[in-house]
Each structure stands twice: as structure tokens, then as C-alpha cells.
Amino acid sequence: MKKDLGIYIHIPFCVRKCLYCDFxxxxxxxxxxxxxxxxxxxxxxxxSGRLNGREVSxxxxxxxxxxxxxxxxxxxVFEALYENYNIKADAEITMELNxxxxxxxxxxxxxxxxxxRLSMGLQAWQDRLLNTLGRIHTAEKFKESFLLAREAGxxxxxxxxxxxxxGQTVEDVKETFENVMxxxxxxxxxxxxxxxxxxxxxxxxxxxxxxxxxxxxxxEIYHLSCDILDRNGYKRYEISNFSKKGYxxxxxxxxxxxxxxxxxxxxxxxYFKGERYHNTEDMERYxxxxxxxxxIKEDAEKLTKEDRISEFMFMGLRMDEGIKRSAFRERFxxxxxxxxxxxxxxxxxxxxxxxxxxxxxxxDKGIDVSNVIFSEFLL
Length: 379
Prior knowledge:
The protein has 379 residues and is of the alpha/beta class. Helix content is 43%, strand content 22%. It contains 16 helices and 15 strands. It has a 9-stranded mixed sheet with strand order 7-8-6-5-4-3-2-1-9, with helices on both faces. Strand 14 (353-356) and strand 15 form a beta hairpin. The mean pLDDT is 93.
């Protein structure tokens, strides 16, 4: 029996690229958006025959900032999805948006399209930090957009928060979470800033404009965030993700469980039939050839069994539920101890991995050095 699929749709447009962002995104005009969205529509329609009617349980529209695109253009993409794919009646359909890029009218149209979950990028409550990040909104604009989404009927909203920002203090973190908790979202993602190559932030750090992030401070505010969220009824179900009961991100869980997903759009990544690949990042090539699946596919890699086992372990250990031995056996036809017995014993002795009911999970102590642990599970 084949499992359900996830679909990711990439919208690369934004008002202005944030200083820390290394995603495939850029600002452009209406004409370019129309050309791109038409190509996206064609790709979605052309690929559908490869799924043989498999059900789609999640759709995630990311970017970029999908909410900068005219709703009529976005609606055409949803027409292609519903006309050509077996979208489950209870599918989780998420769209990312930035504060200040939505109106009461556009939010109502998103609901009509079938979008039932929003992911809103706050990052911080302090306008000085938002300015440092190159964000286009203020804290007040975020609050306004959040309340508009509630008024439009959205009952499943995620808020993104960034930690370890240049100039951020413990009091800043407390203030951010205090204001977010007052809005009562269903889900919170709290990530530490990563300085990526090729971004203005990287240049700023290298030129000495910002100090390097202190690891001890990063861990302090991460644990503070976890404590605040826990006290307010948000369970950590993945290292950086917290939700009220029943509001875990079903789409992101597909990634963490290494299940299959299809990516549509410029540069979008897929994992399908044991193969990883991504679409071309060349806009003109994508627009010209979007209906030709093989022509826009790049860096295709058929994963070996060792690759699949490694990914299953280090992705699964990110989740609070950990990894079930039965799930490992079902997928790979062997016992987890056949491959990782010594590694598991090593980290159990160090208090960084613990036994669960039928499996293993990483401990709070292990989370603080999780990247080291994950790397050792690579075969």
C-alpha cells in the first residue's frame, strides 16, 4: 500500500529579500509573475499522470512570499491541483505569508481556495531587530495581519520566531514570546539564526559589523523558549517546532519521516520513487520547459539503502517521538541494532539518547549537541 504524498509549491517572489535569506527568492514585476505562474500551472498539470491516482495529504506553498502574488494567479494554480490530483478532503494546505502583504479580502480568497493553515513570519517583536534583519514589517503590522487572518476564519496559524539575532537580549526573547502567546497561535517555530554563505549577513559578520553568536547564549534562550512554550501548552514535537495538541505540521512531518513529496516551481526539491532531485533554478529555462519533467530536473540521485537508513535516523531523531524500532524494521527489513547498536549504547551511556516505548529518542541534553550526534548516524 502506497503512502500519501506531500506537495510543495515554490513561489520565488518577495517584496524585498531579507538580509539573512539564502532561499531562491527575488523581487519582480507583475508581468514576470504572470509568466512564472503560467509555467507553474503547466508543470503541475503535466506531472499529474506520474502519480497513478495516489492521494495527496498535504500541500505547502512556500517562497519567497507567496502572498505577494495576485490571488487570481494563485487561484489558477489551485485549479490545476484540484483538477489533476487526488487531494484528500482533510488535506493540510499551508501557505507562507509575510505581515503587511495581505488584506481582509485576500485572506478570504485564500480560504475559498482551500488553504486552511497559514505560516506567518514574525521573527522578533522588536522593530530594531526586524530592521536589522531587513524585514519589511513592524511588530504592529504583524499583529494586524494575524488578527485579519483570525477574522477571515483561519484556525490553524503558525508563527515563526528567530533566536540568536545580532543585538538580541534575553528580555527581547521574553517580550517576543509574551506577545505571541497573547495572540494564541496554534503552532510556533523557533529557529536559531544561521549565517549562510552568499548573504549580506555573512558579509556583515565577516566585516565585524556584528559579533559572532555566543553558543552559551544561544542555548540559554533556546531553553528559555522551550520553557515558555511548555508553560503555555505548546508541546515540542521536533527540535524547533512546538504546537498545541493536534496542530503539528503534517507537511513538515513528511520531511522528518523521509516520506515522499513532489516539489513544483523554480528550484523546488522532490523525493519520489527513491530519487532526490530539484528543478532548474534558471527562470527562463523553467518557464520555457516547465511541462517537460525530465528537462527541468537537475542533480537527480538514486539513494542507496545506506543513504535511506542514514536519513531516516538523523531526521527521525529530530522528532520528540523519536524512532520506533518497528518502523525501522518495516522500512528496511532489519533491526535497528543490526546497524546502530554500538552507537545507540554510546549515546545512552552519555545520557543523550534514551529508550522509549518501542524505540529511541534524543534527550534534552542530546539536543544541545544534536548536529554532532546526527553526523555520527551517517553510514
